[in-house]
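Q&A log
Question type: sequence-to-structure
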Amino acid sequence: MNGIISVLTQNILPIFVVAFFGYCLHRFVGLDKRPLSTAVLYVLSPCLVFSSLVNSNLPSTELGQLALFAILNITFMGIIGLIAAFALRLSRPQVVALLIVVMFVNGGNYGLTLNNLRYGPEGLSRAIVYFTTSTIVTYTFGLWLASMGQLSWRDAAKRLLRLPPVYAAVLAIVVYSTGFVVPAPLMRGIEVAGGGAIPVLLLVLGIQLGSLRETAVLRIAIPAVFIRLVIGPLVGVFTTNLIGLEGLGRSTSIIEASTPTAVMTIVLATEFDLQPELVTTVVILSSLFSPFTLASVITILGI
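Response status: OK
Response body:
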């Protein structure tokens, strides 16, 4: 019990403290999340991805393993989601809604922060790989899944090509592979900008949560939250064992796989009319219960 309390207070509570600041900004000041989200998406997040990957000194084999973990973990969660949807006898829109809430996690503002607080820069550099890989999957396969045929692969690719974090990841891999030395002033500026990504991401998380409204769709929401927060960590452990991922990479990957449902899923559900009230409820409930499940996962697994 002491271990769980320690993780809650030292690693998870700071996340919700900063998110609460964002919540207050939304409720009492009326701050719009769009300017902050735009700044994060087009400047701060790409700088964080680039600086973390370039400075990580990760072996190429570990980079590959971390990316493979993300792809396999998302795939396995999708299979479990399909099984649950069949058991619950859901309609087609409900099936798609269930899939996106169990497959896509809040590995950015939540997962990156938690890994950074617990493991420092070394942990952050590894968590960045999951975040980047899952971002690519979300904006390609995720968009296709949400559209259920309404959006062509060409349109999905166009949306993907507008995401700076993807370019940042590619450039970082090129720099990392070739040993190219980025000019010190430029690199320092990128590092400073990247350092601002996490606190701003947490403010955005609080603003987003403050703008949500809970609705009563618990027949599907409760199983979805259970899959996301309880089955998710188990799948993460299975996947690390399957590909032989060990050490700090194993720990950060399991934490990323154990985070709550991504707030981005609300955008997908709203745009494609995929049970937005259900998706919103899952985001709220999984975010509220995640501190306790994550603290238990970290303590029980000793990661």
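Response note: The mean pLDDT is 83.
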